[in-house]
Amino acid sequence: xxxxxxxEEIHExxxxxxxxxxxxxxxxxxxxxxxxEKEAKKHEEEPKSKEEILAEELEDYKDKYLRLYSxxxxxxxxxxxxxxxxxxxxxxxxxxxILPVVDDFERANKVHEESKDLEAHVKGIELIYKKLKSTxxxxxxxxxxxxxxxxxxxxxxxxxxIPVENKKQRGKVVDVIEEGxxxxxxxxxxxxxxxxxxx
Length: 199
Prior knowledge:
By secondary structure, the chain is an alpha+beta fold.
């Protein structure tokens, strides 16, 4: 009986030894460099599925879109800043050119207060007006000639219409309430006018 039990124990040990040996051999096979390299090549050679290709293309497009959007935002900010700087500089130049006219007005008022010479004061104001007009014209500002012209909604703003007896005045500007101005041939301010109407 003891011999039978001993034989069974030896048999179990042999089975365990065989299993351990097989496990070690399997591990050696997986970990061998040749097998690892073969496995890597096998994965490289496998063609990508359509889903994988589309996913990669989508990532590329997303990346390009984000870069393009970022560049556009930078461009927009830069352009807005440059535009603001140009407008501020142009305004500064115009105001700088108008300041001498303001100085002339102040001198004219001072002289008028001291001398009370009305005729000299009127002549002084006329000279200052001409200087201001000349300064504005040099900046591209020009007054509209509206009186007697055909009414044009592109440049005129009709305040009212009045009946006229003369047929030639119908549809024409018969009075100017507020002068209109151009800036480099573009309307800066519409002329507010009265238009002749058939009676």
